Amino acid sequence: MPETSDRKDDHIRIIEEEDVETSGAGFADVDLVHEALPELHRDEIDTTTTLFGHELAVPIVIESMTGGHPNTTKINRALAEAAQETNVAMGVGSQRAGLELDDEELLESYTVVREVAPDACLYGNVGAAQLLEYDLEAVETAVEMIDADAMAIHLNFLQEAVQPEGDVDARGCLAEIERVAEGLSVPVVVKETGNGISRETASRLADVGVDAIDVAGQGGTTWSGIESHRAAAVGADRQEAIGNLFRAWGVPTAISTLEAASVHDQVVASGGVRSGLDVAKAIALGARAGGLAKPFLGPAGRGTDAVVDLIEQLSLELRTAMFVTGSATLSELRSTEYVVLGRTKEYLEQRR
């Protein structure tokens, strides 16, 4: 099995078997102000939102996780079937393997999502570093592979720096992102992979015309930590040490959400989002939706019903938060009162 495909299988195994979770997303420092007289019926609260031009029943994104190895087809099938059933958005993992390898079984790990989710909001995924190699036609091929409604361009340069075989040439990526944003047939979302996006970077991305920003901040799954485990397995001691040193590096998700939302109106908050209450807090901070990855992985292994159960639980938690803040709509939740405490408050004060 080629290197790129094997790496995808390694990632899933490490996430399932090792401690690759970090704290510090910042949501614990955000308190929504309670409304004792909400004057609402909880079950009539409107949780719909628009993302990438699609109306979603609830502002939840099943974040890009996997694809590119036959072992991942079952996972993506369950996730996509659940996205179809509950009308939430879903992304696939990097499509590099699907673009570069001629393997029908491998390709199915991506194409299965549209086959089982004909109406769901699905987005594709390519790396910013790979844009230096791909022309626009290649990115369109990735769109066509899953009949994508949007295309994510992921920023993962810390992860690449830890990988023994990583691509560490980040020169010219912003210009390439602008080229794709201008010419691609579907909206473009730029997403980090666990280290967050600062206000300054979000502003640069807004200036080149990206349609959405997924902050994927520090505080959830650490890809630096994942690659540290991979480096250890092949005896790359220096890379293993680098991965551990930078395990908790980045802009915390709550802060990244606030900063990105100050310069762009379509922000997805991900990175350490672990509940519907976290989604509510993210929306209060300015996000359009909240994204989760690792929490869906275990349920996906058990099947579609388990994924649907988790989405329904998250939805009820979000609806409850809206109820007790007196928010009849997500627009009202976005303007609800909140208080920021602790390290997050200190961080924001220093940034200001």
Number of domains: 1
Could you tell me the mean pLDDT?
Answer: 95
Overall morphology: globular
Q: Please, how many helices?
A: 16
Please identify, by name, the CATH architecture: Alpha-Beta Barrel
What would you call the structural class? alpha/beta
Query: Beta fraction of the residues?
Result: 5-15%
What's the gyration radius in Å? 19 Å
Q: How would a textbook summarize the main sheet?
A: 8 strands, parallel, barrel
The strand order across the widest sheet is 4-5-6-7-8-9-10-11
Distance from N terminus to C terminus (CA atoms, Å) equals: 49 Å
Name the CATH superfamily assignment. Answer: Aldolase class I
Oligomer: single chain
The total count of strands amounts to 12
Order of helices and strands: HEEEEHEHHEHEHHEHEHHHEHEHHHEH
Q: How helical, in percent, are the residues?
A: 40-55%
CATH-derived topology: TIM Barrel
Which CATH C-level class is it? Alpha Beta
Low-confidence stretches: none
